[in-house]
Amino acid sequence: MKQFWKHVEKRPMSRMERRRTITGYLFMTPFLVLFITFTLIPIFVAMGLSLTNYNLIQKPGFVGLTNYMNLILEDDVFLTSLKNTLIFAVLTGPAGYIASFAMAWLITLMKKGRGAFALAFYAPSLTSGVAMSTIWLIIFSGDRNGYLNSFLLRLGVIIEPILWTKDAAYLKWVIVIISVWMSMGTGFLVFLAGLQNIDPALYEAARVDGMKSRFQELRYITLPMMKPQLLFGAVNSVVSAFAIFDVATSVAGMPSPNYAAHTIVAHLYDYAFIRMNMGYASSVAMILFIMTFVIGRICFYIFKSED
Amino acid sequence: MYSIIVQTVTGKKKWKKVKFSHALLVAGMVTLVCFTALPMVAMICRAFMPLDELYIYPPRIIVRKPTFSNFADLLNSLNASDVPFTRYIFNSLMTTGVTVFFSIFVSCAGAYGLAKFKPRGSATIFAVITAALMFSSYVTQIPNYLIVNELGLVNSYWALILPKIAVAYNFFLVKQFAEQLPDSILEAARIDGAKELYTFWHVAMPLLKPAWSTLAVFSFVSNWNDYFSALVYINKDAMKTLPLALQTLAGGAGVVARSGSVGAATLLTTLPTIIIFCIMRGKVMQTMTYSGIKS
Predict the structure, then answer these.
(1) Fewest beta carbons within 10 Å, which of A168, A199, B46, B74?
(2) Euclidean distance between the first and final Cα of chain B, in Å?
(3) Do residues B136 and B282 both lie within one domain?
(4) Per-residue pLDDT tens for B146-173?
């Protein structure tokens, strides 16, 4: 928090500066009003609600850390959702991030067909998870008519069709594959733009100095130059990797078989908008908030720009 | 590395230069693109498949005899029941369009004010907005619901619009872009006696076009695909947006009914975002160049 206050100046303003400040704030007012109402205040309200037993009907009563204690000590379904979310995030976040970067890097090295490759690669992240789930449900359909089952049956890899979306053991992997598919593009455009913006003279100079391979270029020029973009991409992919919900519920249903696809957001939705237990659900939201925020901060530390 | 291979296709002499690792890279890239493209191809083909092809064994990915009958079924069959499918398309277009419009205006004005006037406290405000990039909207969903509920907006278009206008991500994008606008042009307009609002609208906004075109694309994509907000705020059938309506139509997980209509509806839900992205691609790339975070 300290950094937020270090910018606050105490010296008096000149007339020019006062005018500038007033005009600047007038321009910012519409955004700030909505941002404060629907993002900033809600964060603190959610924090406050997580310490109550609010259920929309009765007045909220203060219960201290009871919600958090229950979540961690009593609620096995929450622990399952936490475990699933972490598995999904660890598998899909880095996979999507690395694939995005690799693809952006390879595309900039291409001479022809950049646009087509870029579109083919980026299109999945433009689609609605709910809409695409209708196709995934056919690909992973449990009968012989599913694309994957029919393919594997004809190949002779399996003898019986597999119940991909009903069997908890497979379901998890199905969700991971779909989430990876959807997350491929998260940082892609940022990386592509960043790569195209690196001064070619840098590479020339390095070549004169005896840099031999593209991988050396990548290691010593490209990656260090792209830190700001890498950070932006990382923050976005952390946030979206922890927020898997649409795909999981529309493919696996809610509740999913054996809670195999139950995520933190699904748990939040369940308690907040089905059971109307706003206090308890807020503590779930807070745990999601703390996780992405802390990891986001770690990303800031890793991709620190030196200047 | 990859360029060497591209050259070899045209100049035969260079075949020797192709190394194993290069071939592997290309193979990897093609596999990756197949993985991303195959479900899209299947999705597009299924929308045009006649019923006999949809239920054939072994299942087909590529359509043989394309037909528009699925779209006709989708638009007609539901007319008879309660809510026509066109209503859902309208709901989605309406809420997404209005959200994008306000989001552009509010984010551009705000980012311009912050980047070009640098008012006292602007660094703090920007730090807070950057911090807001680090959590998803799910975190604030409960308080937002309480606010929307208190305002009596549940089951209205405003419930899907108001909370999603001021998005940190949008503000951040425009602000990074606005930072590199030359002050001299704005200064020149002011010296000519232009009012601040005039300068913003007639000088700054045209210069910010790549930024707000990009914002329009991202905002359109995320709002068009937004399922959670509609799930939370809407429980009247006639107010549902496309993702929610499509889910009802498909019957949720495990139901394989009305395959034809569902295929058509899926395509109608998916296509607009892709078209908009294709149209705006150049502008998007111009903006993303400035999108990095310097920590």
Answers:
(1) A199
(2) 32
(3) yes
(4) 999 999 999 999 999 999 999 999 999 8
CA–CA dist B154, B239 (Å, integer): 10
Residue ranges per structural domain of chain A:
1-49, 68-302
**B192/A277 Cα distance (integer angstroms):** 60
Nearest by CB to B168, which of A39, A193, A289? A39
Containing structural domain, residue B16: 2-67
Q: Do B89 and B169 fall into the same domain?
A: yes
Q: Lowest-confidence range among B162-171, B187-196, B205-214?
A: B187-196
pLDDT tens-digit map of A73-91 = 999 999 999 999 999 999 9
Residue of A nearest to B7 (CA): A111
Mutate to test the interface with B, among A134, A242, A300 (most CBs of B within 10 A): A134
Task: List, in order, residues 6 or more apart from A140 with CB less than 8 Å away.
Answer: A146, A148, A164, A165, A174, A251
**B21 membership: H or E segment, kind and range:** helix B20-47
Q: What is the CATH number of domain A68-302?
A: 1.10.3720.10
Hey, are the CB atoms on B138 and A285 less than 8 Å from each other?
Answer: yes
| Per-residue pLDDT band at B286 (split at 50, 70, 90) | confident
Query: Which chain B residues are closer than 8 Å to A187 by Cβ?
Result: none
